[in-house]
Design goal:
The chain is α+β, with helices and mostly antiparallel strands. The protein contains four helices and twelve strands. Strands 1, 2, 3, 4, 9, 10, 11 and 12 form an eight-stranded antiparallel beta sheet that branches.
């Protein structure tokens, strides 16, 4: 009896194998192979996504550096030399494009690298200053009795902290130079102290304050 059951089991298995098609066998093998490759495929997809993210970050960083170098950059105010117009820790946008097409104009607030006469005094070449343009090439600047005169005409300056308490004889601004002053006239290391600013030292035009929110807006 046992022999008959054994023969019957062998016969059934032989019949199942005989009835199996090549497609069924291939499907079974493929299913097994696919399951074994799932971890590898997931790992490959992860590293592909990581590479794409790194490429995006690198491109964004390159664009940010290009914008900072040639278009605009943020700056903060470290002193009160431009008070009350600018307060300590104000954050500004300094745009760099406009001065590629025209020189700074009278009344504009500019950021610049210190000229040689300031570097001699110990200021770093990269220690940027911020002042207001008062005189441009060919103009005459004079300070007398608390008033700044431009080409002999007194300036109306409602933006200064107080009238200057010093005198300065009339000087003519040379070609390629600027005469700059801080709005806090009596607490500003500016052209009345160290002379004229070479135009190539100008970094850009301080045009917009973005911090603090209560003082948000154009300058």
């Amino acid at each position: 009896m046992a022999s008959e059951k054994k023969n019957l089991a062998v016969s059934n298995e032989s019949s199942r194998l005989a009835n199996s098609t090549p497609d069924n066998v291939k499907s079974s093998q493929s299913s097994t192979t696919d399951r074994s490759q799932e971890p590898t495929a997931q790992g490959s997809k992860f590293w592909q996504q990581a590479r794409e993210n790194l490429q995006i970050i690198a491109i964004a960083l390159a664009i940010a550096l290009l914008i900072r170098a040639f278009v605009a950059e943020p700056r903060y105010i470290p002193s009160d030399s431009m008070a009350p117009t600018l307060a300590v820790s104000d954050r500004l946008v300094v745009e760099k494009l406009s001065y590629r097409f025209h020189p700074p104009a009278m009344g504009e607030i500019i950021v610049f690298d210190p000229p040689p006469q300031l570097q001699i005094q110990g200021y770093s070449k990269n220690q940027a200053f911020i002042k207001r343009v008062i005189g441009t090439p060919g103009q005459t600047v004079q300070i007398q009795d608390g008033t700044v005169y431009l080409n002999g005409t007194p300036l109306e300056e409602d933006y200064i902290a107080a009238p200057p308490d010093y005198q300065m004889a009339a000087v003519r601004v040379p070609d390629g130079q600027l005469f700059v002053m801080g709005d806090n006239r009596n607490n500003s290391n500016d052209s009345h102290v160290w002379g004229f600013l070479p135009i190539p030292n100008v970094i850009g035009h301080a045009c917009f304050r973005f911090w603090p929110p209560s003082r948000f807006g154009s300058l």
